[in-house]
Task: structure prediction
Amino acid sequence: MTAIARPNAWAAADSSAAKLTYSPTVNPAPLTVSAHDRAPTLGSLVVVIGNDSGADVTVDAITFVVQIGKKPAVGGNPLMAKPPAEALVSEPERWSFKAGTEPSGGEGPMEFTLTPKPQMGPLKAGESLMVELIDFQTVEETSSSTVKISEEFSGGGEASLAIPTLPAGFFFDSLVATVEKGSTHTPVSEVGRGGKVVLLWSTSAALGKQKIHYSNAATGEKVEPAKEPGRWESSELTADTVFVVTVEETGAAGEALPAALATAVAVRDPALIAKSLAAETIEASGAVTVKGAVEAASAKVTGKLTAAELTATGASTITGQFSLGGTVTSFGKFEEYSPGSYKTTTDGLAVAGAQCLPVPCGESFTCSNAVNSFRWIPLGVGRLTKISDDATPRDEVVLFIAP
Result:
């Protein structure tokens, strides 16, 4: 398989079809082009070869094929305009790493071969070694080059490296989330509900190549272009949000050369949005919206609670609006007013059903099959399997909804 360039991985490897593993890095990272009217930019490639096979491997030879040339070519984009000054190996007493013949006319493939010294023995399980191509002149146009690797020994396979070369002077770093206060930007990791952040970063990429990806439970993922270089202001945040800033250069052959930086900002007292929620204790002062069921030992919500179904085995207090699409399976502390009678003590609860008479807050009422600790307007018949920890479970009880 051919390695695919990855964001921020200025040298990527695909060792899936090889016996050994190959881990590349370049210096500088990333490689940048040589400007034709200036001194050449020099680069180096380092590859760590590891034996993670779990067994000793007898290596006959490993060949690296590198494309040479100044500009993109039909046979493959070149990695270097001129061959490296040196080809080195980390253990020269055990290994030899030599350059082959330079391509005719200075353009085309060039081989670099790693071979063991006599009596070296196998590459033992868990061992590694390093090869280096030092001080080669980088190419003159942005591109992504592939280095092919051939393992010439029993059980060997093939691997490849993808190495992009970006525009001269390219940089992209220093992403930080801030809060703007007057003429200063204060770095933050958290804002209050409804707060905004200003993302700041540094890059040489053109404005049209800068984008902001952001995602949270309320909005899902969205993408916006940067409106000014290295700066972007968010809308009001209501939930924890992840931000990814990307820049994407383009190679001479049209290939994408991406880079990305990420950060996240927590929101204090966020809106809670979930498909389902299970917790020992639920306590929220803001809105809670759950598309599925809510299950908790106790629930305390001072804002709005919207759920398909509520199951609470302990005390549950809701002082705000309550909307329920299903049934209340268990709900209560309940206050007994007198034997067989109960009184309402708090405002707010809702379950749809047939119309019944309201019970004013603080007034008592007699009910043989239900109890009540809220100011509820009875609207229908539901099923209550457990009233409280010290009460007898009852079925077919009256449920209530707040006006």
Notes: The chain has no helices and 35 strands. The mean pLDDT is 78.
